[in-house]
Amino acid sequence: MKKNALSLVLAVFTGLTAVASTPVDKEVKQVKTTESTVTWKGYKVTGSHHGTIALKEGSLIFEGDKLTGGEFVVDMPTLVSNDLQGEYKGKLEGHLKSDDFFGVEANPTSKLVFTTVKATGKNSYEVNGNLTVKGKTNPVTFDISVYGNKATATMKVDRSLYDVKYGSGSFFDNLGDKTIYDEFDLVVDLVF
């Protein structure tokens, strides 16, 4: 009887060990770039501007139902302003794409790569990543929520870290009401 009980315990333990050591497969889910949106908002002393920019490609990595990674490429020439029209819209978009700001001719893409993902709730995560803009890479931290085949993230980006100096009080004195704040907001809505 003791031999049968010992055999049963060993069998159960061996079975549990095999289950516990079986790795969960990673699943890479491609983002539907035409259904996903990236909205930006920049601030200046006298107000703000907002618009959109398109994703060129992107993916989220899951282990089971848990987010574990991600990587995105932004198509910089698609940067547009949504708060202006006509001549002023064209001037702002041209200026943002120029070397004064994002230099999109020489830097047609920006990239975000997740380095760590930490669950903070049932569908919420804190992500650390590396953001590359104008060839410069800096660490960023932001929150992302995942629900079904959708995800939403918000992020503040300090443009001064990426050599985007125009109108920045961090680089120039006495700008007065011409000052453009260094931080801008990104709101990302993903469909995958």
Can you offer a commentary on this structure?
A hairpin with a 2-residue loop joins strand 7 (136-147) and strand 8. The termini are far apart. The model is unreliable at 4-20 (pLDDT under 50). It contains two helices and nine strands. 22% of the residues are buried. The protein is elongated. It has 192 residues and is an alpha+beta fold. Strands 2-3-4-5-6-7-8-9 form an eight-stranded antiparallel beta barrel. The longest helix has 20 residues, at 2-21. Residues 28-191 form the Lipid/polyisoprenoid-binding YceI-like domain. Residues 1-20 form the signal peptide. This is YceI family protein.
Helix and strand sequence: HEEEEHEEEEE
> Runs with pLDDT <50, length 5+?
4-20
Shape: elongated
Compute the number of strand runs.
Answer: 9
Please list the strands of the largest sheet in the order they lie side by side. Answer: 2-3-4-5-6-7-8-9
Largest sheet: 8 strands, antiparallel, barrel
Radius of gyration: 23 Å
Distance between the termini: 56 Å
What is the beta-strand fraction?
over 45%
Percent in helix: 10-25%
Mean pLDDT: 91
Helices, by number, come to 2
Structural class: alpha+beta
Organism: Arenibacter arenosicollis
Pfam families: YceI
Signal peptide: 1-20
Keywords: Signal
List keywords for this structure.
elongated, 2 helices, alpha+beta, eight-stranded antiparallel β-barrel, 9 strands, 192 residues, 17% helix
